[in-house]
Automatic annotation (TrEMBL), chain A:
GO MF terms, alphabetically ordered: manganese ion binding; protein homodimerization activity; superoxide dismutase activity
Organism ancestry: Eukaryota, Metazoa, Ecdysozoa, Arthropoda, Hexapoda
Protein's recorded name: Superoxide dismutase
GO CC, alphabetical: mitochondrion; respiratory chain complex
Keyword line: Manganese, Metal-binding, Mitochondrion, Oxidoreductase
Organism of this sequence: Zophobas morio
Length: 215, 223
């Protein structure tokens, strides 16, 4: 009797998962100034990213209920909310770590891969910038790793579509070009923001992602 | 009235003539819609964002004209994206500036008339219409527009949303009557992340006279 109760409790515990939580920034809100202002970082993190987390948790609750009832129609109807908020949570969680107030350099293996795929770091910056600036509407510019070819590639995604689920590329470095990421400081001049953000890219983090992606 | 730029005809006579799109003037000053929309937003929105759509539309159309004249189908198709984005941006904003008016010029007030009657008929009340429209506008994922349009097939009003700058008529087949821009550049400097507050506030400056005129034209067109 006691063993049965324990089995049931364990089953409930294993089926209950901790809700997603807003990760802390690895630095203070003002740490990326003058490239990205404290106001932007604070709003971006505590409002925009928090909203994705909150809405992702709500959508996942509904999904669990629908799955348990075998309600396929509701499961399917939840896809846009899961993609948008799940993608928003994934993307921003990567983004905060992709940035750093410290001066960093790409690792030797990453440098070699960049040279091989793009010709050099400046060419990578030029191409990633052009792609990011050219996103129509809201979205992200990405440097990703293609597991099939072993090459680095540049891609863009609309809205909060997450890179890997959308394109198969493993995300290494993302540039958020939603207007909320820069407008308070750069207004309509997205190009200035994209140019500037390379000064706070955390190449150590990008290099670590590259090492993991290769495995 | 169309004006033929003589220099184009002289320099590149083999290009088919067309007149360039231009940025329309706002029907009011940049600060006229305050406090609902700040003059800073209006200025950047009109003089930078809309202007960029006009300039890029002209470039894309020039490229398209060249591809057409060279029978280069592949290049023609390559211009479609830029045409939809910039053409849509120009169409949408041209409607938007006229869709708004300061309160001193009737903004926010819907007179009794055909449009009000039809809204009440279809949505049970004006308040309900605003509620449904607002919730659709707030719910747009990413950048886009919320629209009140006219469906010539059913002869009814209809609500719709479009992503990015996709123009309503070409995308959904509805005649645009009233659009609300929910791109972040339309409100962020003033409302930050609080899109619902912006959408709530914009009702105070909707130029219902303009919307009613568009509605009457749409009804005539479909009769």
């Amino acid at each position: 009797m006691f063993a049965l109760r324990r089995l049931a409790t364990n089953a409930i515990i294993s089926n209950t998962r901790a809700a997603h939580a807003l990760p802390e920034l690895p630095y203070a809100y003002e740490a990326l100034e003058p490239i990205v202002s404290r106001d932007i970082m604070s709003l971006h993190h505590t409002k925009h990213h928090q909203t994705y987390v909150t809405n992702l948790n709500a959508a996942e609750e509904k999904l669990k209920t629908a799955l348990s009832k075998g309600d396929i129609s509701t499961v399917v109807s939840l896809e846009p909310a899961l993609r948008f908020n799940g993608g928003g949570h994934l993307n921003h969680s990567i983004f905060w770590k992709n940035l750093s107030p410290e001066s960093t350099q790409p690792s030797e293996p990453l440098k070699k891969a960049i040279e091989s795929s793009f010709g050099g770091i400046q060419q990578l910056k030029d191409q990633l910038s052009a792609s990011s600036i050219g996103v129509q509407g809201s979205g992200w510019g990405w440097l990703g790793y293609c597991p099939k070819s072993g090459c680095l590639k540049i891609a863009t995604c609309a809205n909060q579509d997450p890179l890997q689920a959308t394109t198969g590329l493993i995300p290494l470095l993302g540039i958020d070009v939603w207007e909320h990421a820069y407008y308070l400081q750069y207004k309509n001049v997205r190009a200035d923001y994209v140019k500037a953000i390379f000064e706070v890219v955390n190449w150590k983090d990008v290099s670590e992602r590259f090492e993991k992606a290769k495995c | 009235m169309r004006r033929f730029p003589r220099e184009l005809l002289v320099v590149k006579p083999f290009f088919r003539y067309r007149c360039m799109h231009t940025l329309p003037d706002l029907p009011y000053d940049y600060d006229a819609l305050e406090p609902v929309i700040s003059s800073e937003i209006m200025k950047i929105h009109h003089a930078k964002h809309h202007k960029a759509y006009v300039d890029n539309l002209n470039k894309a159309e020039e490229g398209l004209q060249k591809a057409l004249s060279e029978k280069d189908v592949s290049s023609q198709i390559a211009f479609h994206n830029a045409l939809k984005f910039n053409g849509g941006g120009h169409l949408n904003h041209s409607i938007f500036w006229n869709n708004l008016a300061p309160k001193s010029r009737g903004g926010g007030y819907l007179n009794n008339g055909q449009l009000k009657t039809q809204i009440e008929k279809q949505f049970s009340s004006f308040a309900k219409f605003k509620e449904v429209f607002s919730s659709q506008a707030v719910a747009i994922k990413g950048s886009g527009w919320a629209w009140l349009g006219y469906d010539t097939r059913t002869k009814n009003l209809a609500l719709a949303t479009c992503q990015n700058q996709d123009p309503l008529l070409a995308t959904v087949g509805l005649i645009p009557l009233l659009g609300v821009d929910v791109w972040e550049h339309a409100y962020y400097l003033q409302y930050k992340n609080e899109r619902p507050k912006y959408v709530d506030a914009i009702w105070e400056i909707v130029n219902w006279k303009n919307v009613e005129e568009s509605y009457q034209k749409a009804v005539e067109f479909s009769n």
